[in-house]
Amino acid sequence: MERPAVVSTRRSPSVPQYNISTSTLAFDQHFTSTTKGILLMAEIVFGMLVWILIGGTDYFPLSALCWVMFVAILFWILTVCLFIIYLTGVHNRITRLPWNTLSLCFHCSATVLYLVTAAVDALSVNQATRGRHNYNCWAASAFFAFLTTLCYAGSSYLSYRGWKISREEQ
């Protein structure tokens, strides 16, 4: 005795089917070995050293060092965001944004502001007593601020080359 299979005629409400098992973001494992990736990682590390070295001291009496902290933290956060965008390939998925122009503007403004910041940081070292904790930290942060400036200048150059090539292709 075989029973006929029961077929349900009742419909379930239409629910959109979402594919949540795959990620839409791709991890570009080769980005960290490119010149652009290495410079971005160096900007993150050196920029973090700038604000950590100043943040560990009593810098509040000097408004110049408050400016250094502002620029260092602002560009550190923005650089981390840009690194994540490039690492995950978001720049390839959002094609409406002119990424080459955006990168060029970001890196050029970071270079100029970090150059001013590094000079202000270096001039502020004289406000501390030589050999003390503040002096050593501020001197080290000035050194890393200049290194960060060089990294941003290198990224500006790479961004300019990419921007120029994209303009020639149009």
Automatic annotation (TrEMBL):
CC annotations in GO: membrane
Pfam families tied to this protein: MARVEL
Residue stretches spanning the membrane: 37-54, 60-87, 99-120, 140-160
Record keywords: Membrane, Transmembrane, Transmembrane helix
Main location as per UniProt: membrane
Membrane topology of this protein: Multi-pass membrane protein
GO BP, one annotated term: myelination
Keyword field contains Zinc-finger: no
Molecular-function annotations in GO: structural constituent of myelin sheath
Subcellular location: Membrane
Boundaries of every MARVEL domain copy: 31-164
Protein name per its UniProtKB record: MARVEL domain-containing protein
Organism of origin: Amphiprion ocellaris
